[in-house]
Each structure stands twice: as structure tokens, then as C-alpha cells.
Amino acid sequence: MIQIKSDEEVEKMAEAGRITALGMQAVAEAIRPGVSTWELDRIARRTLNKLKARPAFLNYGGFPGSICASKNSVVVHGIPSRRNILREGDIISIDIGAVYGGYVGDMARTFPVGEVSEEAKRLIRVTEEAFWKGIEFARVGFRLGDLSNAIQEHAEAAGFGVVRDYVGHGIGEEMHEDPAVPNYGTPGHGLRFEKGLVIAVEPMVNLGTWEVTTDDDDGWTVRTADGKISAHYENTIAVTDGDPRILTTI
Amino acid sequence: MSVLDERLAPGSIAISRAGRDRNKAFIVLRFDDTCAYLADGKLRKAAKPKKKKLIHLTVTSAKAPKVAEVLARGMLPADSLLAEEIALYDSLRKKGELSGEK
Question: Interface pTM (ipTM) of the complex?
């Protein structure tokens, strides 16, 4: 069931979103060659705890980390590990969620580690652009399919693959609420946007094929089927009377 | 944190639960809030899919990935491909090798 949020609830979610963004900022500042994804996880956890928030991902469905740290060909849900050391030329997607005041904030970014290939830079840039193209339609009067299609069109026009199997989602007191927010779709179809709808919009864009596989070993790590790199960009946004409001911002 | 998409999707295999085609498997070509557009390449061709209410369908966990890929490119799948995928699904269903429907 889709839960429309009151103005007061959206304000509370903005506070949770601000804290999430502060957590992301702390992690981003620590990204460099030689650091492990486990260290990034610790930084996120410490930062959120200091801000009186709780990492939303820790133990969610059994997930063992406070962040998802997804390197190179890992699309999403990478488990932080001491053995996973960042190297010059890697790209690393950080997905972070915080629970504060009973509401959840959720965001993701892909960062270059040191100097990366032009191809990787383009993938990261196009993924972010796809997000902004998509949320242009997160307005009263448009439908979910308009947003989804704008993301898909932008990423595919650049020659990249849009992940189908994993999608964005409604968010509020729970991290995953209705509706599902796919990154592909048909304009004019799907849910009509209305004021108070809060969703996490999160294009996951692959350099090659859109197809992905999930590691049998841990049941979490989602990789590109062709082993090529992938990027991720996510914010929690609220539909308003006017422009969509980004909640995961400092 | 993204979530596994378990919704109806283009390329999903769905079973009709009402009408003359009851219990027949189809591939979802597209859908909207209330209806899905279905084809199997034989009874219903891709160019003229069957519009069916979602409440009259059971969406299975099976997918026709080749069809999904064609649809994702904005093209209509060939009827021969649809028929091939449905035949494969039906043969697995007969052998009881499918994990079940959701």
C-alpha cells in the first residue's frame, strides 16, 4: 500500500535524509586507494551513531553491513570486507541508509578511486544525469512510467544497460515501501504522482549488458552478468506542489 | 538500498485464471495499473495482444529473458520466439520442474 506523507512527515524525513547525507559525506572523504570497504563501513556507522541515528541496512534482511560497498562489476549490495581494498582506477558505489526520528533516508553514489578511465567517468556521469532526467517527471500530473522511461532513455542513449531486476522504492517509516520504482518503463503508464509521495529513485547503470547475477555464496552481492563495471546514483525525494524535493541533502 | 523487483514485468510469464484461455500461459508484453497485454505467439500474436485484467492473472516467477530483452529495446518480439518460450515453459511445467507460482 502506498503511504502518502503529510508535510510534517516529509520534514521528519528531510532530517533523516540530511543525516544520511552527512554519513555519505564522511564515507566519501575517506575513499582513496588502500582503504578497505570495511573501514568505510566503520566510518559510516560511527558517523550515523554520533548523529543519534541508526544504520538502516545493518541486519536488514540479515545484511551484515552498515553500508553497501559495491566495487567495479558489483552493481549493488556489496558486503563491506577487510579483504576488499580499494585500488587506483576502481570505482566504488556506496549505498547508505539512516533511521532517525522513526523515518528512513536512503542514498547512493558511485565514486572514482584515484584516476579512473574515461569510460568509467562517463558511466558515473550518465548515471547521475539519468537520475536528474528522471525526477524532472516526479511532479503532480505525471506518472511513474514517465520518470522510469526518462532514466532508461538517457542511459540507453549513451549505450549503457539499465538494470531491470532491482528497482527503487517508496520509503518512509520502512526502508522498502510501495511503489516499486523501476528504471525502465513506458511513458504515460503507472502510478500518478501526488503530493506527499516519497520515493527512492536509484538508477543502476551497467557499462555493458543490463543483466545481473547474484552471488550464491552470500546471497547479496549483485554483479553484472558480463563482468563490466556498474554505477549507481540514488536520492530520497518527495513529490511536492512544485519541483521535487531532494531529502538526502546537507 | 535497491529492492528486487518482484512485480509484473515485460517478459514475465503469467497464467490466465479466467475466460476461455483459463490455465494457459502467456508472456506479458506490457501492463498498466489494471491490465496486462499478453501474447503467446499462437492464439495471441505480438501485434494483437490479449488485454487481460490483472486480477484474472497469476504472475509466475518465470521469465522469458529473450523476450524481455527485445521489449526493452522497444521492439515487438517475433511470434516464433514467444511460442518457443511458452513451449519451454509448458514443458517444464509438465515435468514439475518449476519452483511454483507467486
Answer: 0.80
B74 touches chain A (CB under 8 A): no
Distance CA A90, CA A116 (A): 7
User: What is the mean predicted confidence (pLDDT) over A54-75?
Assistant: 96
- Residue B31 is part of a domain; what is its CATH number? 2.30.30.30
Q: Tell me if the domain spanning A7-246 has CATH number 3.20.20.70.
A: no
Nearest to A180 among B7, B33, B65 (CB): B7
Q: What is the mean pLDDT of chain A?
A: 96
Nearest to A106 among B1, B9, B33 (CB): B1
B47 touches A: beta carbon within 8 Å: no
The closest of A124, A190, A201 to A168, measured between CA atoms, is A201
Determine the distance in angstroms separating the CA of B30 from the nearest CA of chain A, rounded to an integer.
9
CB–CB of A106/A20 below 8 Å? Answer: yes
Residue count of chain B, please give it.
102
